[in-house]
Every structure is written in C-alpha cells, then in structure tokens.
C-alpha cells in the first residue's frame, strides 16, 4: 500500500497546504468571493443613488451590546419597531414571551405567549396589529395589541400555515411589513433559503397565497431577520452565519452591505448569533443578538460648514 502523500511533505509545506485549504473553505462558507465582487461594484454608486437607498456603509455602531435586563434566562429572536409607541418589540423562544423595549434597550413589559412553540420573528404590520412567526409550527399569527394586553393565546387569533412541512428548525424566521404594497415579507432561514410575500386581504387577517420573491444574488448563507424601509422601498436582510446585514432593492438585487465582525463599522466586538433587525422612524438600525444583547447603528450627522463672509 503506497505511503500517504503527507508523509513525504516537508512540515512547512504541509502547514501551507492546510492554511490554503482552510482559507478556501472559509471563503466558500462566508461566500467572500461574491461579497468581494459586489463590494467593488458598490463603490461605483453615485451620491444620488446612495441617498435614494438605505446605504449601509454610512452606518456606524453607536450602542455596543446593551444587555436586556431580566431576559437572561431567555433567548430573544426577531425585532420590530412600533411607530405608534416609539418602542421596540422582540420575542423569546425558551419561555415564549412578547417583550416591549425602549429604544435604549430597557424592558417595559413582558407578555406571556400561550400556544406558541418556537416564536422566531415579530413584526408590527398595521392598525395596531402584530404578526408572530412560529418556526416549528410553520405558522404566522396576526393579533391586535394595546396598552392593556397582559397575555396572548395563539388560539384566539387568525393564523396562516406557511408550508414547508419538512423544514424542521430551518423554516421561516424573518418577517417584515411592506407598507407600500400592504404585504408581509417572509424570510426562510435555509434548506432552501428564500424570500416570500403574503398579502393581507382584510382586518381579520385573511391572507392570499405565499409568493416567492427574487433573491438569488443575496450572497448570505441564512436569513435570520428582515426589515422593510418604506422610504427607499428596500429590504434589510440579516444573516447570522454570514455575519452580515444586506440591503436589497425591489427586484431583490443587492445594493449595499455591512459586516457584523468586530473592528468594522464601529463594532468593538463581533455580533454573535444576530437574530433580529429593525429600523426606527429616524432611520436608526437596531440589531438584537444572543445572549440578549442590543446594538444600534446610526449615520453620523452631516457636517455643516459655517458660511463665508465676504
């Protein structure tokens, strides 16, 4: 039997080979080759095009991993902004709850969720209603919420079967409200990864048919959360495995992205297991990552130069 190839390789060459293989695997895992080509094209966007988009390269982290007090025993997932209350909402999976937060990450209230198995996404949609995605049950439940709500039972509200019965724990996690087209956007985590839309027909929560959306150039390995920006008509796609926040236009084409790795975009440390993203009325971006940490990204205020006096 011939001797293994490695036996005849010098140690230095063997180390080099191992490094090359590891680098190739990393590039493939994070899809760095596609990201690099896109980054080269991204730099050619004009100022007008950048201003018409969300333009993620203009954002910097201004809050670094704020701990969500009182949720240490839970796992937060999903994030949404409520313009009516100027607050955030997230859900927890270990002990199902709907949690309301201030924009600074302070817990305002916790609402127990009954009849939910694995809530992974939450979104404010319209007229005081919210939608919660239950990944294991492959369902979306739509309900109303007010200041007096103390608990929620999935059996009391309309729900929709999202299909993909064989998805297991690789089902739908991302949900966003497209207010321009009055539809819900849904992100399937992976196996296969995909973006979908669902129209809400009326106030009772009746819905249409799940429609696949173009997303073939979304160079991410998974989708953990979505957020829609009505000002640009673009969608934010959060990827935990790719450590990336990506902006897609109406046709599902990438427009811009930022890395969630420490040392970049103002981050002191990497965001671990990014699970939720949303934008507020001022355009600030909020990301929640495990273990229950909140991050905020903002665009620096433009510098106003003093007028010259002749």
TrEMBL record:
- Please report the name of this protein according to its UniProt entry: SdiA-regulated domain-containing protein
Q: Which family does it belong to?
A: Belongs to the YjiK family.
Task: Report the subcellular localization.
Answer: Cell membrane
Q: Which InterPro entries match?
A: 6-blade_b-propeller_TolB-like (IPR011042), YjiK/CarP (IPR009722)
The protein's organism comes out as Pseudomonas aestuarii
UniProt keywords (A-Z) are: Cell membrane, Membrane
| Pfam families in UniProt | SdiA-regulated
At the top level of its lineage, which domain of life is listed? Bacteria
């Amino acid at each position: 039997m011939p001797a293994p190839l490695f036996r005849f390789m010098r140690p230095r060459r063997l180390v080099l080979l191992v490094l090359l293989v590891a680098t190739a695997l990393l590039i493939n895992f994070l899809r760095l080759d596609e990201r690099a080509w896109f980054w080269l094209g991204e730099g050619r966007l004009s100022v007008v095009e950048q201003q018409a988009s969300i333009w993620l390269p203009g954002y910097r982290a201004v809050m670094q991993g704020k701990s969500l007090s009182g949720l240490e025993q839970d796992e937060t997932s999903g994030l949404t902004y409520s313009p009516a209350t100027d607050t955030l909402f997230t859900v927890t999976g270990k002990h199902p709850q709907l949690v309301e937060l201030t924009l600074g990450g302070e817990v305002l209230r916790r609402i127990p969720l009954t009849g939910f198995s694995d809530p992974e996404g939450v979104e404010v949609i319209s007229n005081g209603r919210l939608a919660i995605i239950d990944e294991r049950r492959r369902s979306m439940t739509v309900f109303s919420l007010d200041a007096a709500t103390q608990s929620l039972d999935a059996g009391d509200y309309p729900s929709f079967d999202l299909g993909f019965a064989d998805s297991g724990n690789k089902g739908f996690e991302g949900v966003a409200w497209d207010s321009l087209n009055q539809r819900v956007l849904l992100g399937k985590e992976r196996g296969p990864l995909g973006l979908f839309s669902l129209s809400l027909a009326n106030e009772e929560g009746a819905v249409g048919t799940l429609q696949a959306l173009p997303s073939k150039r979304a160079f991410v390995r998974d989708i953990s959360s979505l957020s829609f920006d009505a000002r640009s008509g673009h969608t934010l796609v959060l990827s935990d495995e790719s450590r990336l926040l990506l902006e897609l236009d109406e046709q599902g084409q990438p427009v811009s992205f930022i890395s969630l790795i420490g040392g970049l975009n103002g981050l002191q440390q990497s965001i671990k297991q990014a699970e939720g993203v949303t934008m507020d009325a001022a355009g600030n971006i909020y990301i929640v990552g495990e273990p229950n940490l909140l991050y905020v990204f903002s665009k620096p205020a433009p510098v106003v130069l003093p007028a010259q006096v002749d």
